[in-house]
Amino acid sequence: MKVPLHAVHAWLTILVCGCGAQTLDAGSNTDAGAVAPPSGVRWSQPPSNDLGETCSPGGPTSVVGSWLGHFDNYVFPSGSNEIRIDLIEANNPADSPNAPCGKIVFGGGDPPPLPTDPTAFYPPGYAPATIEIGHDAGSTLVYHPQRTVYEGFRYDFAGYGLDSSVDGGHVELGIMTLQIYKAWCEMQLSYYQSAATLGVNAYDCVPSHSGEVGGPVEGCKLVSSGPSPAASLANATPVSCAQVALCSACSCQPNGCTLAPVTADVHLDIQFQGDTGSGIASFPSDGIQAFTLQRAP
Description:
The protein is 7% helix and 34% strand. It is built from four helices and 20 strands. The strands form five sheets. It has a nine-stranded antiparallel beta sheet with strand order 8-5-4-3-20-19-18-10-9, with no helix packed on it. It has a four-stranded antiparallel beta sheet with strand order 1-12-11-2, with no helix packed on it. The chain is elongated.
């Protein structure tokens, strides 16, 4: 789990950090003299933001299809209040574990382009927040993955794994806002970490380290244990602040990094009747918002 980087005194503070690292069960402990697995391994498949869910078209015609709608009293940053749901599969979940299955798009505009720079913040327009941490200390940046829906992005919903279900005309859907980081994670290199730091057989998307330093002026650096704090700071390695921040959304393994498995954090509850539908969406930061739907022509 990522810890925000706070600047203290000369804007430097050492943090013990997990940075999205994953600990793997290898079946036995690593000997002290064993050679660590290779570091710097990238995901073998082309980066993609699609979860790769398999939707088998079918289910009640009363709910299957494309639906267009608007939120009653809620607008996205562009000024749009639109929502589109493509409900591809709505078979009985007992017979089809991925049902209901499909895509949701919020707001207007095109989906964001896939990331091209693994060291840059993503998605486009993302900027860390600035907070005041005291009269003497000043301000510092708070880094964390964006947990709000991004306009134009095609979010997947599929089965109980994403809190989605269908019962006649009543449909519940769940999506992960962090899905937008899947391709970014798959661009990262997976690095083996020191057993003394993160545990046996742990991986992360930055090189092995024991902590981080940084602030809004001098940038971010990785530190390793040294004979003294001064020695650790002197040998600190510069690192992208985006990687310090966003790697908490990733799961790194010996064969690369991808999106970490997390639960749905946006939930929709919809009742369909004829060619219309009405429902509510629960957002992490903006609460419960009502919307109406119309079957797309």
